[in-house]
Amino acid sequence: MDSIKWHCIKNDKRGVEILTDYCAGILDPAVAIEIDTHVEQCAECRKMVEAQRVVWEMLDAWTPLEVSRNFDARLFARISDEQAEPGWRQWLRRLFVPATPYRFWKPAVSLAAAGGVVALALAVLPGVIPERDLGQTAYKTAYKSAYKSTAVQASMSGSEEIDLEQVQQALDDMELLTPVGQTPSGRL
Amino acid sequence: MSLVFPPQPSSDPSVHKDMEAVAALERDAQLMLRVRQGDEISFTLLLERHRGPVVNFLHRMVQNRAVSEELAQEVFLRVYRSRETYEPTAKFTTWLFRIATHLALNWIRDGKKETRNESLSEEVSEGMERQVADRQPSVEQTMIYEVKVREIRKAIEALPEKQRAAILMHKYQGLDYSQISGALCCTESAVKSLLFRAYETLRSRLAHLA
């Protein structure tokens, strides 16, 4: 607590916590004595302590109420009613009405639900993509493989020049993959 | 395992005295573990010990007596329902006030705010009688008390829910920062921040009553 001696408690990050506990009377006695000394010397802290004391007095004035006399009887009646329910109903209640209310773990459930939707989407995605897109994808793949195979053949035959006729033939073959009404580029 | 409710009270006064002694010595978690094993008396002891604090905490949160008792019943009902899976991973009071806090926050956020026209004078006079047990309060004392309670109620009600819960647990239930953080499901530094802001607001709001 040496730091308290050298600068204002109020501006210390822990200072407000210390002063609050000081006003509540729950500080260690040795520390409380140090605070007493500082508060006598520091007008700002003294002002804050006084204001906090007013708050504590007001909070103390709000005294607790007596609980209704039939509180226990009503609670036991509810427990008995639940015990009389079928086991499956009790099990469902334990599942859907947990001790800590649902809202507490709502974010986790939302994330899990979102994950499930994404998984489902990925599972059905192939059935959702239009044929046009599939055709275009197949076209591009076939074009690349045709070009490559032509280039390979050219290199194997020793010729460094790609035979344009062979490429054209490959492209003609690929047109068979293009849906009717569309150009190979996919445009209508 | 099902328990028989209500537990049959013993007519032997020495049993009651023993029960009080046992309650004083037993830790809440140990009592709850006994409830898990089917000990109905342990649940009654837990109820006896925590009924008042839970009801009053909820009353200060929702500021409606009927609702606070209803929510408190729900708290203990959930404690009882969870008996078979209870594990003493945290302090019992932390767990208890976590349930209470979340029920209160849910109630507040769901907007199920019944009219708060419950008689303030009724509550005030009850509190006043408790304060001055031996003699009738004077008119002036009653008026001062009413003003104080009204102001503090309004000030607490104006706080954001989590600040309200933190300050009520800190001031009235005597929970430490780690317990409050467990009840509110946040970090200790978040609790300190909540309390700092809450007390700062109360200081400025109640300064005129100094």
Task: Walk me through this protein's architecture.
The complex is a heterodimer of chains A (188) and B (210). The N terminus and C terminus of chain A are likely disordered. The termini of chain A are far apart. Chain A is mainly α and 188 residues long. Chain A is built from nine helices and no strands. By secondary structure, chain B is an all-alpha fold. Helix content of chain B is 71%, strand content 0%. Chain B contains ten helices and no strands. In chain B, helix 4 packs across helix 5 and helix 5 packs across helix 9. At the A-B interface, helix 2, helix 4 and helix 5 of A face helix 3, helix 4, helix 5, helix 6 and helix 7 of B.
Separation, N- and C-terminal Cα atoms of chain B = 56 Å
Number of strands of chain B: 0
Report the helical percentage of chain A.
55-70%
The helix fraction of chain B, in percent, is: over 70%
Low-confidence stretches of chain A: 1-6, 184-188
Spell the H/E element sequence of chain A: HHHHHHHHH
Number of helices of chain B: 10
Kindly estimate the percentage of residues of chain B that lie in beta strands according to DSSP. Answer: under 5%
Query: Helix/strand/pairing class of chain B, anyone?
Result: mainly alpha
Taking all Cα atoms into account, the compactness measure Rg of chain B is 19 Å
Q: Which overall shape of chain A is indicated by the principal axes computed on the Cα atoms?
A: flat
Structural category of chain A: mainly alpha
Secondary-structure element pattern of chain B, one letter each: HHHHHHHHHH
Radius of gyration of chain A (CA) equals 40 Å
